[in-house]
UniProtKB/TrEMBL annotation:
It comes from Funneliformis caledonium. Keywords: ATP-binding, Nucleotide-binding. This is 6923_t:CDS:1. Residues 46-75 form the 4Fe-4S ferredoxin-type domain. GO terms for molecular function: ATP binding; ATP hydrolysis activity. Residues 70-318 form the ABC transporter domain. PANTHER family: ATP-BINDING TRANSPORT PROTEIN-RELATED. Coiled coil: none annotated. It comes from the Eukaryota. The keyword Endoplasmic reticulum does not apply. PROSITE patterns: 4FE4S_FER_2, ABC_TRANSPORTER_2.
Amino acid sequence: MSDKLTRIAIVSSDKCKPKKCRQECKKSCPVVRMGKLCIEVSPNSKIAFISEELCIGCGICPKKCPFGAIMIINLPTNLEKEVTHRYSANSFKLHRLPVPRPGQVLGLVGTNGIGKSTALKILAGKLKPNLGKFEDPPDWQDILKYFRGSELQNYFTKILEDNLKAIIKPQYVDHIPKAVKGTVTDLIDAKLERDNKKDMISALDLQDVLNRQVVDLSGGELQRFAIAVVCIQKADIYVIVVEHDLSVLDYLSDFICVLYGMPSVYGVVTMPFSVREGINIFLDGDFQLTVKSGGFTDSEIIVMLGENGTGKTTFIKLLAGGIKADGEEQVPELNVSYKPQKISPKFPGSVRSLFLKKIKNMFMHQQFQTDVVKPMQIENIIDQEVASLSGGELQRVAIVLALGQPADIYLIDEPSAYLDSEQRVVAAKVIKR
C-alpha cells in the first residue's frame, strides 16, 4: 500500500454494539461484496474489525453505522512509517515522540485526547512503545534500533538500564485526596529526598496549609501541593510540562512540541520549537474573605478573579446557599444553578440518562441542542458511562447541566478546568449565549 493511501479506521468500543444492529457496516462495504474480509463482524462479536490494508476509504460504513461508531481518516503522507504506539486494532495511534533535553523544560501543547498522556507514560517508562505492532510487540532492542541516531536512543537506553528516574505530577489533582490521607507537612516529609523543603514551601506559598488535611485543600492549593511533592524528590534533569494555559506554557518552557491530529483517533508530535520568554505569573497571599455590597443586572456576565485560596469558591457557595454567612447580613434567596469546582461523578448511568433525568425539557429543546449541546461536543460521549469520563469530558457535561437548569443566576466555578485551549474558547462562547 502506498504512503499516499495510508488511512486509519477507528471503531469506538463504547459505541459499537453488534448485538443491537444488523451489521450495516459489513453489508454495505463494497470490498466485502467483492469477497474480501475488509470488515469482520457478527452478532456475537464484541466489536467490529476493519482492515486498514483492505479499506478503500469509500466512507460508506461511517454513514451506515446506526451508532456512529466508525471513523475512516486519511492520514498525512509518510506518517505510517513513524508510528510510536497503538493500543489495539482500530484504536488511537500516536506518531513520533517529544524529544526531552537534559537541563531544559519541554512544553507539550495540544487538544485533549491527542496523545499527550500516552507520550508522557512512554517517556516515564510506564508504557512500552509497540511501534504500532500491538499484536506482536517488539522487544527493547528493536525499539532502540528504531530510534537509532536520535536523542531518544540515549534516553530510552537510560530507562532500560534503570539510570533514569521519572516522577509524574498527576493531571487530575482532585483525585489526590482519595489516594492519600494525612496533613500536608506529613506527606511532604514522607516524600522528602532533597534538602529543599523550606524553599519549596516558601516558593509555592504552602506555609498556611502545612497543618491542614489534604482532603480540605482547595483546587489551587492541591495543585501547589502536588508540584511541591514532585520537586522535593530526586529525579533526572529532564522536565516536561503539559499546560493548556498558553501564557503559562510560554513562560515555563525552553522549547515546545505541538501535538496535532484528531482527538481519540491519531496524534502527531512535531519537532521541538523554540519559545520566547513569556509573562511571569507569581502567586502569593493569605486567605481572608470580605464581601462588600454590590449588585448585578439581567443578562450580565460577571467574572470573578483572584488568587488561589482567596475565597472565590466560598463566595460562590455562599450565593448558591451551600453555606451560610457568619455575620448578620443574609444572602437573598435566588433561584440558582451551580457548577462546582470539584466534580465527583456519582451518577450510575450514561450521560444521556443523566441529562434526561436532570434537564429533560431543556435537553430535548432544539435551541438548547444548537446553542449548548452541539458546540460542547456532547454527542461524542452521550452514551458513555458518567463514571468513566475523563476530567475534560466531565467538565463539559457539568457546564451543560448547569446551563440546562432554569435559574435567576448561573454560578459557574472554574469552567475552563481540564479543558484544552480550543474547548475553553467554545465554553466561553456557549456561556455568553
